[in-house]
Write a structure and sequence with these properties.
Length: about 280
């Protein structure tokens, strides 16, 4: 069974101090109600996995403090980008080795803001996904169509290409470590979320692409093992519609992940659906 994942993408928000304030408020809510299964900071992690798995992707500068804060709990920390080399003359870049060292377990690759403002392409995404896997980081590959691509009826074609090319350096036995986030560009930060049925249609297509590309005729069905999230204007009042769909394994959340109470409410909403 795929464990749902709730991932917060903080983008370029919060200093170290603000990140730790969030952590303190969030853990008062989260661990207060979790005594049975998550463990408090500093306590040993309990064995029964909590639903959903919770991930926070802060700016690079806050990764070490948050990793230390949540050490030994079931809250994971991730990065928002990486470069594919381990070290070298690449001014301003950060390597997978450094992210691991700072405590990251996941890394977002190919977010639409990186594609739009920083020249990320499917080719660079493929190298980043490869580098993440080589260093034991779980990549979250973002794919999503623009408004004009949707209006032209090209959504599935665009998503297929982004998925195939972004995962072109992944080997079949590695695919279960990859997470995909379907984030239509027109829904990000706009307050206009996709309709859950439309998101589910695209995600079903992504699963089909995974089957075609990674099927080894033995072992697990690659279309079934990979977690595929929805992202784009998710908030506590609309998340239910997405996680009610069995194809959708959780959410990648920007704006609503910045507030500890809202982020916790998202967890509660997922539990209402997935624990019943
Ligand atoms: P949003 O951002 O939730 O603020 O729309 C989502 C994302 O960019 O991952």
């Amino acid at each position: 069974m795929r464990v749902p994942l709730l991932a917060g993408n903080w983008k370029m928000h919060k200093t170290i101090k603000e990140s730790l304030e969030f952590a303190a408020s969030f853990s008062r809510l989260y661990f207060e109600h979790e005594a049975g299964d998550a463990g408090r900071p500093g306590e040993e992690k309990r064995s029964s996995a909590s639903i959903p798995e919770v991930l926070i992707c802060p700016p690079f500068t806050s990764i070490p403090s948050l990793s230390a804060f949540f050490a030994g709990t079931d809250v994971s920390i991730g990065a928002q980008d990486l470069f594919w080399e381990e070290k070298g003359a690449f001014t301003g870049e950060i390597s997978p080795l450094m992210l691991k060292d700072a405590g990251a377990q996941y890394v977002i690759v190919g977010h639409s803001e990186r594609r739009q403002y920083f020249g990320e392409t499917d080719v660079t995404c493929a190298r980043k996904v490869r580098a993440a896997l080589d260093h034991g980081l779980k990549p979250i590959l973002c794919v999503g169509e623009t408004l004009s691509e949707r209006e032209k009826g090209d959504t599935l074609k665009v998503i297929q290409k982004m998925t195939q090319e972004g995962l072109s350096q992944v080997k079949p036995h590695e695919i279960s470590s990859v997470v995909i986030a379907y984030e239509p560009c027109w829904a990000i930060g706009t307050g206009k979320e996709a309709r859950p049925e439309d998101a589910a249609e695209v995600i079903t297509h992504i699963r089909q692409v995974l089957r075609e590309v990674f099927n080894q005729n033995s072992g697990d069905d690659p279309g079934d093992v990979v977690r595929v999230l929805y992202g784009g204007s998710v908030n506590p009042s609309n998340i239910r519609g997405f996680v009610l769909r069995p194809e959708i394994d959780g959410a990648l959340v920007g704006g609503a992940s910045l507030d500890a109470e809202k982020f916790y409410e998202l967890i509660v909403e997922i539990r209402k659906v997935r624990r019943s």
